[in-house]
Amino acid sequence: MRTQVAIVGAGPAGLMLAHLLSLEGIESIVIESRTRAYVEQRVRAGVLEQGTADLLDATGVGARMRSQGLVHHGIRLRFGGGDHRIDFGALTGGRGIIVYGQQEIVQDLIAIRLSAGHPILFEVSDVRLRDIETPHPSVSFLLDGAAMTIECDAIAGCDGFHGVSRDSIPDGVLTAYEREYPFAWLGILASVAPSSEELIYCYHERGFALLSMRSPTVSRLYLQVPADERIGDWPDARIWEELQTRLAAGAWSLAEGPIIEKGISAMRSFVVEPMQFGRLFLSGDAAHIVPPTGAKGMNLAIRDVSILSDALTAFFRSGDATLLGAYSTSCLRRVWRAQQFSWWMTSMLHRFPDSDAYQARLQLAQLAYTVDSRVACTSLAENYVGYEWATS
Description:
The chain contains 13 helices and 20 strands. It has helices at about 10-25, 35-40, 50-60, 65-70, 90, 100-115, 235-245, 295-320, 320-325, 325-350, 355-370, 375-385, 385-390, and strands at about 5-10, 30, 45-50, 70, 75-80, 80-85, 95-100, 120, 125-130, 140-145, 145-150, 155, 175-190, 200, 210-215, 220-225, 260-275, 275, 280, 290. It has an eight-stranded mixed sheet. Strands 8-2-1-12-19-18 form a six-stranded mixed sheet. It starts with a strand and ends with a helix. The mean pLDDT is about 95.
């Protein structure tokens, strides 16, 4: 097979890149190791920055997001048993976020790509990237047991943290920056209407908690737990009891319902530099991971591929590789901004194992300043809704 761009990974980054390229008349083939059903049902991020939502609208895949997504213009910080609202609209000139699940975006992007007759090859295996340092790279793999090869001009590695793309770059090229956090998030989906119209980020002496949502009838909630915790040790009743304790506030009450999904996710920060080598370009989780506290992961991935699409478009139209050469530099300024914001939110809201009374007082002081100072509120708000979209 021959195409202009081979895209490894059918998550939001790979699918969005394929869509953006198709709008410019650039051919691509997407390959994915998982089944279509798996990627369409995989529950991950659910908060879209203003710029992400605007891009989906502008490229013709925002209709279902607009009809089913939940528009929010603020979040609440809860500590000391009280709520403090961060008003995004007032602080950022009317900008906000949309709560719309990653799996929904994946479904929308798959549907529009397949309806246009563009290929997505699911359930491939033994993926190998070859000759990536040359102008003529290729991707080989097995599909239904048959050996296949895609010859191309560029490869986009959008296959996540555990994918093959980053590991295909020779040793010594990449520098990795990472931090493992000494706690994890236990997340649940519950079939119950959200108990708040906006997300609640809660600092509590027993650990962080987050009240989020996926729809008017489905709640998404999280608890900070030890990094080595096992989900089997958390029956539903224990989860609800802990959520009730941490999220308690005055007369407010947390509605409970059937838990339809639960799991524990590790917390890490990770960046590799550069995000490219030869004709291989890394995007999304293949290049960087952020703690979910700042709601940045999927938004970073979408921003990566919007930059990469512009660079590839310039290259295929005129042969000018200037933007391709600058791809990593263009992405990393924004990546590190999101890293800093995510680290700040994480360190302010979580209880660390070695935390003492002094550290707890510092965190409460930081939270109080954040909600009392208009400057601090504005900093949180503009980062949350997508600082990099507004300033790039």
